[in-house]
């Protein structure tokens, strides 16, 4: 069943190609058996009950823990009602309180979750996206009555982003269309549509240079822009909405320009001068003349400008300073009014992981001359806050549900081949740092996305159980300047992996842990990181969990959604320039027979189209076939789960099972002496 073919000029041997076919009865049965074995083994673990107790007592659905967003006189928010089992969309007349349930996704199906919500500027309508077992549906809901006024969007299988016109006449949206080329290769293309509130959608005839696009319509309804790229955004198209046509905008620029329309200017965070970024204002009329651009804030070392949001007479500017987020207030003239008094060190955004959206989007919700957001710390779950951008004061709307006062947090630094790496270590004060306690290192390092220390149930529960949790900031991520990102992407992707190894080796050198009691964990791009570490440095750790991973870099070409995303940070396996580099670190292709591999759990979502479960199937098969360590290799494919999109109960179950796996595997190790 082994296949050998040339991809991008590289001869690639693929012994488990057959496991890619979701429809093959043999594959279905193979996966069913592996999955059932994993479920049974973890349920029978002597540690399962203790892990479940720790997870349930500290659980927070940080993806669905959201800030209330104001549109008109209504406040919108996805919430888990008290005693509820799933998240709903609620609307309220104030930012506090439970509000009224506007959309319950489980009227679609038991595994349904809300993936996107786009209220109209006056708050009278809302476009809602729901996914159930991999099937997406969309509806426009009248907020006052709660009734669906339109749901005939079957032509759009995957709406990405939307922007309403202020007069509620309709909205711009992005969607992905897949066509088949003459050679049989599936090709994905992003399209921009204008969807009137009544009538048929009109496709906008504009060329896009990237699969990811973000439409924006100014608050006064005079301007629209289309930004492209989720890693280095830049507005490529501009239109006056009073009868104008789409015009190329900053189309020749190669630097990043991410921001928003402020009056008749486009305020942009750009790395055109420094990788730490400066803030410039670009007039929308006459933007071609760079002499009319004005610099609002110059670049400063170790002071990364990250995301901005117009808020009444002010602009909220988020900054990453020495690995921690700050919130700055600017007036409309660009005067720096100072930093907001945040609740403490940590991360903020429109949801518990909302800071990652700052790559390309605003991460606070405007409310007059203020903004709302959620904020969490390593040892404190997300709370809901409102900042007054005039006074710089912060009001607590909802306190954090979980606080971990007995935790000790340490910030440390390791030295790798490309320079220093920051990492944070959290433990109970009573947990020893002599190598006897099991330790898990998490990492991501990709797509220019920062990894700011924030609350997670995994870290809270693991430390509750007496373990140590380590949060790392690796090259390839957006934690520092552009050079930091570039040092861990495309042909330099190995820089991300080398940073992880440096962190682990530093931990071992300090005596905090031993390899046998060290675990590694990562999700999505972090799952690739875990897979690469398993194949490259199996000596460094005893157990690994790759959550919704990409593990076969050469066959991502078969999935348009995956390829479209991966090309922004890994490359294209069909390109002879990229293929040898990608093949050199592709985890699946670098599994070596006769190697003592650590215990490995590949955990996938059955309905994940971004990181499909065939990646996990192939990696598990390859490690099982090659390893001589006798350590467990396990596959878990979760029904009702997409790319980290699932109900809260499914998230709880995933945390329990993954931590049980770590507890089983790392507790079995014996410490010398």
Keywords, please?
alpha+beta, 10 helices, about 20% helix, about 675 residues, 5-stranded antiparallel sheet
Taking pLDDT < 50 over at least 5 consecutive residues as the criterion, the unreliable ranges are none
Radius of gyration: 24 Å
Overall SS class: alpha+beta
Shape: globular
Helix content: 10-25%
Order of the strands making up the biggest sheet = 32-33-35-34-36-37-38-39
Number of helices: 10
Could you describe the largest sheet, including whether it forms a barrel?
Answer: 8 strands, mixed
Number of strands: 39
Averaged pLDDT: 94
Task: Indicate the proportion of strand residues.
Answer: 35-45%
Distance between the amino and carboxyl termini: 48 Å
How would you describe this structure to a colleague?
The chain has 673 residues and is α+β, with helices and mostly antiparallel strands. Helix content is 18%, strand content 35%. The chain contains ten helices and 39 strands. It has an eight-stranded mixed sheet, sandwiched between helices. Strands 27, 28, 29, 30 and 31 form a five-stranded antiparallel sheet that branches. Strand 28 (365-367) and strand 29 (370-377) form a beta hairpin. Helix 2 (48-58) crosses helix 3 and helix 2 (48-58) crosses helix 10 (648-667). The chain is globular.
Write a short abstract of this structure:
With 673 residues, this protein is α+β, with helices and mostly antiparallel strands. Strand 3 and strand 4 (74-79) form a beta hairpin. The model has no long low-confidence stretch (mean pLDDT 94).
